[in-house]
Hints:
- Keywords: Calcium, Cell adhesion, Cell junction, Cell membrane, Cleavage on pair of basic residues, Glycoprotein, Membrane, Metal-binding, Repeat, Signal, Transmembrane, Transmembrane helix.
- By secondary structure, this protein is mainly beta.
- The chain has a four-stranded mixed beta sheet with strand order 3-9-8-5, with no helix packed on it.
- The longest helix has 34 residues, at 727-760.
Amino acid sequence: SSPKAQRITALEHRRGSGGTSESLRWRQNPLWAARVCLPVVYIRFPQDCFYPPPQQISMFLSPPVDFLDCGRGAPVRMECNNPSDFRIEADGVVYAARSLQRSPQHALVLLVKAIDGTTQQQWTTQVRMEPPALSSHVPPAGNTDLMEISFPSRRNSQLKRMKRDWVIPPINVPENSRGPFPQELVRIRSDHDKSRALRYSVTGPGADQPPTGIFIIDPISGELSVNKPLDREHISNFHLRAHAVDLNGNQVENPIDIVINVIDMNDNRPEFTHQIWNGTVPEGSKPGTFVMTVTSVDKDDPKTANGMLRYKILSQTPESPTSNMFTINNKTGGIITVAAGLDREKVPQYTLIIQATDMEGNPMYGLSNTATAVIRITDVNDNPPEFTAEMFSGEVRENRVNVIVANLTVTDKDQPNTPAWNAVYKITGGDSTGRFSVPTDPTTNEGLVTVVKPIDYETSRTFVLTVEAKNEVPLARGIHYPHLSTATVSIRVMDENESPYFEPNPKLIKLEEGLMPESALTIFTAQDPDRFMRQKITYSKLSDPANWLRIDPNTGRITTIATLDRESSYVKNNLYNATFMGLDDGKPPASGTGTLQIYLLDINDNAPKVFPQEAEICEKPEPNAINITAVDGDLNPNAGPFAFELAHRPFDVRRNWTITRISGDHAQVGLKIGFLESGIYEIPIIITDSGNLPMSNTSYLRVKVCQCDINGDCTDQQHIMAAGLGTGAIIAILLCIIILLILVLLFVVWMKRRDKERQAKQLLIDPEDDVRDNILKYDEEGGGEEDQDYDLSQLQQPDTLEPDAIKPVGIRRLDERPLHPEPQYPMRSAAPHPGDIGDFINEGLKAADNDPTAPPYDSLLVFDYEGSGSTAGSLSSLNSSSSGGDQDYDYLNDWGPRFRKLADMYGGCDD
Length: 911
């Protein structure tokens, strides 16, 4: 070995004396299951393999080790002399093969050999491992073995090139160190400390910047120490700057940068991003089918084994059909199937316990955690629908539509309410006319055999259908429909009483109009579709707008009861429609209707007429003529062309007017003379049609001759005469209106005078008598029952009426005269002649008959009361003042029919 050696540890770089062996000190990590160590390795390099700055070789039990091959380029294989306790992998990772329990009094020496794979050259080194009780991996304070970092020398001469600053290698400090603290890391030294006193300091995060107080430096000795445990997951490295100043605070050296890396320790377990993972895989999937991927994270350094995770499946529930239905990629966490036999109908779901372990899955040193993966087996159509029976039956009445006659039930093991479970039914035989369909009940998945077209019992009494059931989606590959996916449906048709039907319907017949009543037209009968029932059909009329026809209820013979007229308003386009009903005697009875259409042929039964019937013409034609048209209710050839001529009477028609034919339907009427006095004239025009037996008719054209303005239009004065009145007639009407007004005024004056005379007239009856008669006019049409609504209290003596019995104003009849205070008649000294009574009554009667305000029906007429103080005496025969009580009332017959009843009651014989 060379006399010069470099000592490199996992915590720091140290410069020291060489040796013939390496020392590895044990440390106990409380997070590991086995005893591991942090190496403190003393390595002596060959002379030809040392290059400044020193190269780093790290040797751990778990992190990888980089072996310096001195640039040989060939692969190096490492072996140890104790393979039962230790092993060295090809990537340089050293593992403890088992739990080591070393005695604190003895050290363990491990011989490590490096072999060049090409030249077979070998290098051998010894490693001595001591328990931590014997020594510490950190020298005590003030230890002269601490690595020194010197400030680069500075030259004052500007003629010489300055030496480049040294590149200080990073200082490695493990996290979670147990101390003791402060723990020295490195010594800072300046060459000027030999000539004068210096003070050392460090700045940066972790020193004088947050987080402060982690690193401290002895200002005199320059020893840099860590003051507390570090956490790589919080801060992975620190960048500090070292300073050297004299006692006056003057800087004597340029600051140097110090990088402190926090070495990761396996102090964090893997954490799954989800505690429960859900995945799906179709049933029947082949091995190797991807299911899902689970992931976990580790806060440790992923570049070291502390953060390298490995996955595995701990358990599977249920273990059917095998316990290893799935596998997991130990690096990516992808879960795939490894066995066939996934069947949702048997195992719908699997639960896997997944473990993630760091240290690349090392079960002895790695930390682990678990999560649950729930894998649901999704359904595929691997089970076809199967009918629960081979034969189904049903029945339906004939002529029924949209009724369910049978329910077809199936079973399907697939997941309900999915396309692989939903059944679709198809009729494959027995329904050539398409009278049935089989929709699916979405709830029960049953097939509903439904009638979609009417079925005639007389044609088909039974149906035998073949129905096939399939799913909405095709079956999975390799699966075929079984025999039970087809069923037979037997349907029996039941007979019903069907309605009779008329054939043809509608029935059209043609005949000439004008057919006389009681003429036979046709026989319109109905047929009964129930051939297996003996039923009788009776006929009746449903619709006959003009009431022209009659039908025999037994035979269906139709005859006329009136003359058929094509020109009737009930005939549209020469067609007359009538509807008849046929009713059978079934139980229940059924009926059918039929329409009879009568096409009426035209005959010449209508005479032509002139149109328009009124026209205007000026007194002086310049020229002025009237165009007229002949209209005929008949059709050609019984209508036009028409012949026009003026009638011979009156004689002045042909003298004043002329008529000229323009076309077959039109003619022109004009004045023959140069002037005709204004007025209304009726011109008789004879029009003859062109029928086989022509018909003529004299139509009157009403012509108003008027004075015209310059535009040829009648003036306003003449428009007043358009109602058909001449100048003389208008004057006569005005005179009549004036005379009528004069008569009304005279009548009012006469009535006022009459009232005055009546007030001055003496009463003709005895004051003690109280008689009032109702004069009823029996020869007039009155108001019905209202004529008898009389107030009988008018026949009583007003003096004897109680106050409560007096009828209030609010309940008087509307046709009653208003109530006036009772007039006080002067007392008469003696009874007048009986003729005075007749004069009084006649005068009152005339006044009532001539009263323009009297109601148009019989009513109670109140005359002057002949009561107390009247000299007329009583009209009652019971209280008559005549001697003997006998009085001749025959003279009442002379007063007219209104008093004949009184003459019959009091005149003549006793009865």
